[in-house]
């Protein structure tokens, strides 16, 4: 970065530092917003932990190494899940069947009458119903009749538990263990027909020894259905349409034996998969309630599919009569590591990813609106016109937003960790910071890119907040489903992650999933080693974000510089052609010159315009150092919209402005004055033609031209939260002033525009009046010794004294500079301007000094005569025509008449002599003779332009 860029960076940094210091309360509130979010979540978490019973928690420091396990005995361990299980005990396989009060009965819900009568619910004797169907009904009935063993008396297996596999054990309890002990919950066994008081006794091993368990008998009812459709319909009704969705007509399971026969055995088993989540039922409310703790630790004795398959297989083998049997003795849980159950209630998993995503995205609209604000107020182009380059602007702006984002992220992580949110505690801090850092850079570059498409702060703010709201919802309700869909191609996930919001959602989602594993895997959470796992996609997300980070910055910089891809290509092509020709200015000139649209008759009469064009052509062929600004056939056309015709704002104007002079541009409203200034200052691009400022082409070298410009725009472009002195210091630094020279130039500018007294210089500009803002804009344009100064109606809104002060400052600033002034004040133009050009309807009408214009377009004198009697008016008219036969009466009102008298052939002494003689015979109250004013010239030229336009 060169010396100029360092000076500009220093100026912008100091200016932004002052602005942000004044907005410190807003910035602090923004950075501390994560404290509010984490405080609410952490407060709820602490409150719930405080209200929770201490008995509901599981200690993590228990020891199970001294617990002996008899692998030859059935049973569990009195050790919590927080401990390792080096040797797994044997578990009796068991079915999960509905509670007696919720089993299917004949209560009108089903169209079948073979279900048990509803009166069985009174004594809890309702059978567990199994539905069967198939292609061979007789064969199916023979198989189902052999599924349950038949016992005529109670059985005691305490001596030898090996025969336990001959019985179909089942669980029909309100399973809700209070201490998470791993004991099998077997409450009954199934028989075709239960006799009174039929029981089954078997041993259960626990940490305290061996104990016997007695369970009663429940009937298993096998009911035939004619089709799979009827079977499915009944299953659905039982689970989802019974008693207001409370599932009080449940079917235990269903078998479809398909085309099975004695030589071919096939079947489909239908069962309630929600059993694996261990629903329990409240005594007062029969609706199923999911026990979260139990759902995480499914008891291994619930082996639905293997046990149901074993029942049918053994029945088939028994039917074949070959004394074969597949014994299903026990199941074992594999040895496992300790499962850590937190003693504290954690809100993080319950919140999901959406609140975290919204909180992280909150800075996007803040950054976007800040960028669009300077664009909407034209502050960016104002700084650029005073020499601020793109690189310093982007560097300082980017660094500020990055610093704000880093403080925001660190605040989020700090407060979340202090308040105990496992989302931050469990995941590696280094991993979190890397991903958040890259995302924040991506978010800033994305905001820079989006800022190029907005010109209104309000629109940008609404769009920004709508983006984070909608993208968050889409991530939670759409993108998450795609991520969890194992059958969806990962390429589609990668494509969706090209949207920055979805990349952030994927990061938060994977961090959350890693935290959820803490109940199963010690030292869980996202670690560095986990980035190599392709299943979580973290490496892919990081790569996408880094690539998009730089891509968005490049595209944003390109659009910011050229406005559109097409303009950039055109400018690059023009520069390339100019470099090939060896002379960029001449190449651009040859490319852009077009013939102006003038009417030949009008052009031929205006020798001053023809002469000015010849001067411009001569200067272009033989460059002269005495001219600071040369306009060569400048033209601006605005394309028509909504069916309207094109608007030609400037029609091929050629001008030359020498150094040390003030050049005035006059014209009625809408004549094209401001458009001309906008083209010369870079506000808008010429449609054709070009201009040269200090030998540099405005089409190709505008960045270099800006370093020597001073601009006072038509509207005041100021920061409301900076003082007048701070404005001048900032623009002075942009013009390479420093130290004592900067202080002296600032004080001089304040005094020259009468902004020094009364502490005005140290007041915020937001408290300035319109005139004070205007004076400050003029002072800004003069500071730093610019070579060319543009002033667009600088005296508008100024009182007479301030106007005189401004004129004095402009006169003293003309030395070795070129000042281009547009104004509606003819007095101001006469006082300040060495040469004046009048523009009407986008065309140059005349050019010259004030005296030359008055001589050329105002070749008459104005005689005004006021008489007391109306009858003398005709006599006065005859008198004037005797003096000047070509005199023309302009108006006649209440005895006052105004005449225009051609100067040719008229002597002023004769006028005075004639009026003295007339006083003796006419009652003349007053008379006066005046030369033509610049205002008269302006009105005349404007009228001629209107007439030529109509013609």
TrEMBL record:
Protein's name in the database: ABC transporter domain-containing protein
CDD domains: ABC_subfamily_A
One cellular component (GO) term of this entry: membrane
A Pfam family that the UniProt record links to this protein: ABC_tran
Listed PANTHER family: ABC TRANSPORTER DOMAIN-CONTAINING PROTEIN, ATP-BINDING CASSETTE TRANSPORTER SUBFAMILY A ABCA
ABC transporter domain span: 629-866
Entry's family note: Belongs to the ABC transporter superfamily. ABCA family. CPR flippase (TC 3.A.1.211) subfamily.
GO MF term list: ABC-type transporter activity; ATP binding; ATP hydrolysis activity; lipid transporter activity
